[in-house]
Amino acid sequence: MTLDDVDDYLRTLDGVGARRTGGRRSWHVDGLLVARADAPGTLLVRLGGRDREALVTAEPDTFGVPPRWEAHAKVQADLAGDADAIRRALRLAWEQQRTARTGS
């Protein structure tokens, strides 16, 4: 999966917009971060709690939580990992951000 693939997928979800923040590509819904490019070949997905733990447990070759992100509601995805799992994570992050903004 590439960042262009991420962009193509996220733009199919209602309300997602892309921008560059600090030179990095990022995607937001209603102003809230869904995902952004992280270290080369990785994507940071705003997803915490049980969803994050379930992803890391089910797909340890695709997802991880580097020490600097442990205290944050974020998971790092290896873009060379399972593309379907990454799309699932992105959709979960999108759903969480929409719910956070709208309360529904």
Net shape: globular
The CATH class: Alpha Beta
| Overall pLDDT level | 93
Return residue spans where pLDDT drops below 50 for at least 5 consecutive residues: none
Beta content: 25-35%
Largest sheet: 6 strands, antiparallel
**CATH fold type:** Aspartate Aminotransferase, domain 1
Characterise the protein shown here.
It comes from Terrabacter ginsenosidimutans. This is MmcQ/YjbR family DNA-binding protein. This protein is 37% helix and 27% strand. The chain has three helices and six strands. The protein has a six-stranded antiparallel β-sheet. The longest helix has 20 residues, at 83-102. The mean pLDDT is 93.
List the helices and strands and how they pair.
Blueprint: H1 3-10, E1 16-21, E2 24-29, E3 32-37, E4 42-45, H2 49-58, E5 63-64, E6 75-78, H3 83-102
Antiparallel strand pairs: 1-2, 2-3, 3-4, 4-6, 5-6
Please name the defining characteristics of this protein.
104 residues; alpha+beta; Aspartate Aminotransferase, domain 1; 6-stranded antiparallel sheet; 3 helices; 6 strands; 37% helix; 27% strand
Task: Provide a brief overview of the structure.
Helix content is 37%, strand content 27%. With 104 residues, it is α+β, with helices and mostly antiparallel strands.
